[in-house]
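Quick one: co-fold with nicotinamide-adenine-dinucleotide.
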Amino acid sequence: MTTRAAAPSSNRIAFIGAGHVGATAAYATMLRALFHEIVLIDSNEALAEAEAADITDANALARPARIWAGSYADAATAGIAVITAGAASHGGESRLSLASASAAIVIECVQRLARAGFSGVLVIASNPVDIMTTLAIRHAGLPRHRVIGTGTLLDTSRLKQVLSAALDVSASAIEGYVLGEHGDSEVAVFSSVRIGGQSLHDFDDAAKALDLPAIGAQVRDAAYGIVRGKGFTSFGVATAIVRICEAVVRNERCVLPVSTWIDRHFGHNELCSSLPCIIGSGGIERVIVPALDANEEDALSSSARKLGEALDALDDATS
Ligand code: NAD
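Sure, here it is.
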C-alpha cells in the first residue's frame, strides 16, 4: 500500500545506502550546509548508525544539522532522496557487469520509497547508473523529470581537470561535456569544448596539439585506476551528488550533464543516458542536445545501443 506523505521538505535529504559513496556524500552535504536534516538508511543498520554518529561529531564544528540513521518513513518527506545502495564492485569489472546485482537492490529501495509516499526529487548514483536511473523511473511513480542520474557529471569534471592541467586554465573556465553512458562507451564531446568562447582548435598551439583520443581514454578509465589503489571511488561522485542537490535546492537552473530519459535522441531508446540538462527545483527542467560532429553523433548512438542491449538482457533475465 502506498502511504500519502506530507509535502516534501527542502530541509531534509535522505541517503539510501550508507557505504563509501553514501556516507561521503552525506558528509559533504553536511559541510555544504544545504539541509537541516540528513537521514541515512542502509540494510546494514549498524553501519548507518555509525556513519550518522560520525558525521554528527563533525557537525559540531559546522553549521547545525540533525543527522540520524532512519527509516523509509523518515525519507518520505525528504525534498531529495539519493540512492547509493548497490552491489559491491571487486575492482576490475565494468559498471555494466554489476547490473543484475544492483538492479534488485535499487528496485527494492525505490519501491520502498514509493510505498512510503516519497514525492521529492530522486537522485541515483548506483552503478551502472544509466540502467539504474531507467529502472528507478519505472518504479518510482514520479514524473521522469524528477529522477536524475549522476551520469557523466563526474566524467565531465575529470575531463575539465585534465584539460585544465594541459592548458593552464582553471577547470571552471572550460565549457565541455562527456556524454552518453557513464562507463566504457562514454563520449568526450571535444568539438563543443570552449574556453573563453574559443574552440580547442582556435585556443592555442598547445590545445591544437592535444592527443584527444588519449585524453578521452584517460577520463573514461580514471575510475579503474582509483579502484586499483583504494578499492572504491567516493569523493568525486559524492561531490557530483552534492552539486546536483545544490542545483535543485537553490533552483539554480544551471546546466549539468546528468543521466535522463533520452527519448528519441540517438536512436529509439526507452532509457536514460547523459545529456546536458537544466536543473532546478523541479528536477530536470529541460534536456539540451548540443551540436555534435558526425563521429560524436555515431559514438553516442553506439553508446545508447550498448545501454539498450544491457537493459534488454537485464529485462530478459528478470522476466
Ligand atoms: P558500498 O558497498 O560501500 O555501499 C553500498 C551500501 O549499500 C552498503 O552499505 C550496503 O549495506 C547497502 N545496501 C545494499 N543493499 C541495500 C538495500 N537493499 N537497502 C539499503 N541499503 C543497501 O559501495 P559504494 O562504494 O558506496 O558504492 C555504492 C554504489 O555507488 C555502487 O553501485 C557503486 O558502483 C556506485 N558508484 C557510482 C559512482 C558514479 O559515478 N555514479 C561512483 C562510484 C560508485
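If it helps, Residues 16-22, 42-44, 47, 84-86, 88-89, 98, 102, 105, 108-109, 125-127, 129, 150, 154, 182, 232-233, 237 surround nicotinamide-adenine-dinucleotide (CB under 6 Å).
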